[in-house]
Design goal:
Radius of gyration: 19 Å
Structural class: alpha/beta
Largest sheet: 7 strands, mixed
Number of helices: 11
Low-confidence stretches: none
CATH topology of the largest domain: Spore Coat Polysaccharide Biosynthesis Protein SpsA, Chain A
Order of helices and strands: EEEHEHEHHEEHEEEEHHEEHHHH
Oligomer: single chain
Number of domains: 2
Mean pLDDT: 94
CATH class of the largest domain: Alpha Beta
CATH superfamily of the largest domain: Spore Coat Polysaccharide Biosynthesis Protein SpsA, Chain A
Strand order of the largest sheet: 5-4-1-6-11-8-12
Distance between the termini: 31 Å
Length: about 290
């Protein structure tokens, strides 16, 4: 399965923070925001990843992530000149996707919880149609909302409904079979001029090939796209890391634990960053496993 991180847009909800920089490199506590969605793909075992961003920001990500080899990944880049909607990612990335299924994660979404890697591995194995991930919220009228039937089959999908049929918000993580490329190409722009991901999902819903996985209690889903949400996400990460002594979305550690890199490579990366707590943490976990 190929992976896409969509890190485009101008981040207007975060102005003036994002006047001169992509929101996806802003810090969420001690790491750039994009580390968090990228870590989700890695936890699912996905190693071929396309980062899509604006022409003015794409070089930031090249400088930050390179070709991915230090993480045991292959990372490529593509431009989205204008914010034409999430579904455009499949058109931009069509040649990269090729004949493979694809996972898409939004660049400002943060997922965390016990068993996340096992859950993702289970879901990416055999994608027939689309797999969405739902998260229970107290204000579902603010989100796209999914209703499920037997075995997680999606039976309804509503965008910001006044009378929600469930409290499961559709998160910014999506798994699709290869049909998504042709489906996205046939989606018409919405009244706001964008190719909506909800319209792609509705095609799968009409075909009876859409499932919704309830992330359930114990998981956290955060959208760091506003000032308050960015602060709350940083506080969430800070509290967990300080109390548990572990790191959330530490890419090198994930690469090491997943077998993408060995202990020596993890230690060397830590040595390069040894003046930071992040670097000393990497050296410590690599040394412990030698």
């Amino acid at each position: 399965m190929k992976g896409i991180v969509l890190a485009g847009g101008s981040g207007t909800r975060l102005y003036p923070l994002t006047h001169a920089v992509s929101k996806h490199v802003l810090p969420v506590y001690n790491k750039p925001m994009i580390y968090y969605p990228l870590s989700v793909l890695m936890l699912g075992g996905i190693r071929e990843i396309l980062v899509i961003s604006t022409p003015s920001h794409i070089e930031l990500f090249r400088a930050l992530l390179g070709d991915g080899s230090r993480l045991g990944l292959s990372i490529e880049y593509a431009e989205q000149p204008r914010a034409n909607g999430i579904a455009e990612a499949f058109i931009i990335g069509s040649s990269y996707i090729g004949n493979d299924p694809v996972a898409l994660v939004l660049g400002d979404n943060i997922f965390h919880g016990p068993g996340l890697s096992a859950l993702l591995h289970d879901q990416v194995k055999n994608v027939d149609g689309c797999v969405l991930f739902g998260y229970a919220v107290r204000d579902p009228e603010r989100y796209g909302v999914g209703e499920t039937g037997e075995q997680g089959r999606l039976i309804s999908l509503e965008e910001k409904p006044s009378a929600p049929r469930s409290n499961l918000a559709i998160t910014g993580l999506y798994l699709y079979d290869n049909d998504v490329v042709d489906i996205a190409r046939n989606v018409r722009p919405s009244p706001r001029g964008e190719l909506e991901i909800t319209d792609v999902n509705r095609v799968y819903l009409q075909q009876g090939r859409a499932r919704l996985v309830d992330l359930g209690r114990g998981f956290a889903w955060l959208d760091a796209g506003t000032h308050d949400a960015l602060l709350q996400a940083g506080q969430y990460v800070q509290v967990l890391e300080e109390r548990q002594g572990v790191r959330i979305a530490c890419l090198e550690e994930i690469a090491f634990r997943m077998g993408f890199i060995d202990a020596a490579a993890c230690y060397e990366r830590g040595r390069q960053l040894q003046n930071s707590e992040y670097g000393t943490y990497l050296m410590a976990i690599a040394h412990a496993d030698r």
